[in-house]
Design brief:
By secondary structure, the chain is of the alpha+beta class. The protein has helices at residues 2-46, 48-67, 75-92, 147-156, 172-178, 185-188, 217-222, 257-268, 316-321, 323-326, 335-339, 350-353, 360-366, 374-385, 406-416, 465-478, 493-500, 503-511, 515-518, 522-526, 530-539, and strands at 98-100, 120-122, 129-133, 138-141, 159-160, 195-201, 207-211, 232-239, 241-242, 246-254, 276-281, 287-295, 329-334, 394-402, 422-428, 447-456, 482-483.
């Protein structure tokens, strides 16, 4: 008995020692993270001017390439270079799958893209606007062109895209493959719904054109949300519409969640008049629901004009919050300012790496240099702090849920994270009935809402990053929704299949020559788990 008690005592002592060591290590890790975060904030300040110059040069290069037509090669030659690399993969690949050589820091995904290190990387240097067809109303563009640059370019031509996501650095290819959304999506859907044609290099090296009507229609409808696992996207044709220079904005404050849901649904389902619908929840009670109608200059009431994109103006979400006190208000905003309204504050995340930036003095002195180029910031972050998500409370997730379940999604987010504000944008996901191959939404041809949860979790009873995201995923699954694919995912393969129903995707992969040999399954590129196993398999 004494021996057993002694062993039990030693086990208890060892357990206490392990807990103590774990606590010390956690404190050390936390302090290291805080130190690195301070270094990152300092680096951010020094990078403000280079970031501004980088963005300006990239935009001027896009204009130069289009108007001067001065390029070292043509689109056909750039595509031929990709084809040659794919053919080399057949000889040099040694069982590896293909992916683009685009570095991790150029992606908006919050998770590391470590899988690229174990794959055969293809250089896809495609950042040209190829043509504008003003008769048939489309722009022909390569996939690496960023949405912000493309939109400013189109505005100069008197056009815009029906859907213009807010953050300038999102690429056309990423928006097609990952589901680009905007406050006009209740009318137009996602970026895939305004896409007319895809040009792709397939795993066997051939170039294929896919569209909705006659050419490889199954590939056309399977490409969105495929994340480059069917072929390498080389060009896209997108619908364009005439540009109206102003938008009439109406801000409607609400003071309880039931009122917010009622106003949001009413304005979303309104038959006419609302070109744009958006909501920002500032707490579980307070929200501002915004609607907009694009107008010509002669329709603008000059005393209600607000050029909110000027460098010294308050950040958009801060400006919107003032209407909780002011009450319902109408103002007119230049359309280009509206398109970029969330760009400078990166919705409301810029305060994390530049907490001083929203101060009036900072806006007047340095506001002209914003927004930070997210790609440069991510490169610095990965260089200084590494890939590991030491900031366990930092969440950037989007969930597409049926409109009738929106209240439950907001309440869940409040319970799990207590992150505010929260972004709400309605969207349709279904295609016209004539497109029988178009994906059928899980909950039918109804209105969905993108619920954007971005920020640092403030909930006292926070369960940790992984547990929180798993809870979000389960709730989204149980309530007929989808998780945005750019975000971190802990779903199993079975859960992923249930959520996204990749039946058409699997059929196309089976049909295309060398597709399964050449490209990973989309689940492998999106989930946190599969490539951990894949990397071990390859390098052990």
């Amino acid at each position: 008995m004494v021996g057993n008690e002694g062993r039990s005592s030693r086990r208890s002592s060892d357990c206490m020692e392990m807990k103590f060591i774990h606590k010390v290590c956690h404190m050390f890790k936390y302090n290291i993270y805080n130190f690195l975060h301070r270094c990152f904030q300092l680096a951010v300040l020094t990078l403000l001017l280079p970031s501004f110059i980088w963005d300006t040069v990239l935009y001027l290069m896009l204009l130069y390439k289009f108007y001067i037509r001065k390029a070292s090669n043509t689109h056909a030659e750039r595509v031929a270079h990709i084809q040659e690399q794919v053919r080399r993969w057949k000889v040099e690949g040694k069982g590896r799958k293909m992916c683009t050589a685009r570095p991790s820091w150029k992606s908006v995904s919050p998770q590391s893209i470590a899988y690229k290190g174990s794959m055969y990387r293809i250089e896809v240097d495609l950042d040209h606007v190829l043509s504008i067809d003003k008769i048939n109303n489309y722009v022909h563009v390569e996939p690496s062109v960023c949405i912000g640059y493309l939109n400013k370019f189109l505005v100069q031509e008197g056009y815009t895209l029906p859907i213009v996501p807010e953050l300038d650095n999102l690429t056309i290819g990423g928006l097609v493959m990952g589901g680009g959304i905007e406050t006009t999506s209740h009318k137009y859907g996602l970026i895939e719904h305004i896409s007319l044609e895809y040009e792709m290099v397939m795993a066997d090296g051939h170039v294929i054109i896919a569209d909705a009507e006659k050419n490889n229609c199954d590939l056309f409808f399977a490409t969105p949300f495929s994340y480059g696992t069917l072929g390498l996207l080389t060009a896209v044709k997108l619908k364009i519409i005439p540009y109206k220079p102003f938008i009439k904005m109406t801000y409607r404050p609400t003071y309880n969640i039931e009122e917010a849901m009622q106003v949001f649904e009413r304005e979303t389902m309104k038959g006419t008049g609302n070109d744009s619908v958006e909501g920002i929840m500032y707490s579980v009670h307070d929200a501002v629901i915004m609607t907009g109608e694009f107008v010509e200059e002669h329709q603008v009431e000059k005393d209600k004009l607000n050029s909110l994109g000027r460098w010294y103006k308050p950040w958009f979400y801060k400006h919107v919050q003032t209407f909780l006190e002011k009450g319902e208000t109408v103002e007119y905003v230049p359309t280009l300012h509206f398109h970029q309204r969330h760009n400078k504050p990166c919705f409301w995340l810029t305060y994390i790496w530049a907490p001083w930036a929203s101060h009036p003095i900072a806006r007047y002195l340095l506001g002209w240099a914003f927004p930070f180029n997210y790609q440069i910031l991510k490169w610095v972050k990965e260089s200084i702090m590494g890939y590991n998500n030491i900031g366990d409370r930092f969440i950037t997730q989007d969930f597409l849920i049926p409109l009738y379940n929106l209240k439950g999604g907001i309440e869940l987010s409040a319970k799990l994270t207590n992150i505010w504000p929260i972004w709400m944008v309605p969207t349709k996901l279904h295609y016209d009935d004539r497109h029988i191959l178009g994906k059928k939404p899980r909950s039918g041809n109804i209105m969905y809402v993108d619920l954007g949860v971005y920020g640092v979790a403030m909930e006292d009873d926070y369960q940790g990053h992984e547990a929180t995201l798993k809870a979000f995923e389960k709730w989204t699954m149980d309530n007929g929704g989808y998780q945005a694919l750019y975000a971190e995912s802990y779903m199993t393969k079975e859960e992923f299949t249930e959520m996204f129903n990749p039946e058409l995707y699997e059929k196309v992969r089976d049909k295309l020559p060398l597709c399964k040999e050449g490209f990973p399954h989309v689940y492998q590129k999106l989930s946190i788990y599969p490539f951990v196993c894949l990397n071990i398999y390859i390098f052990v």
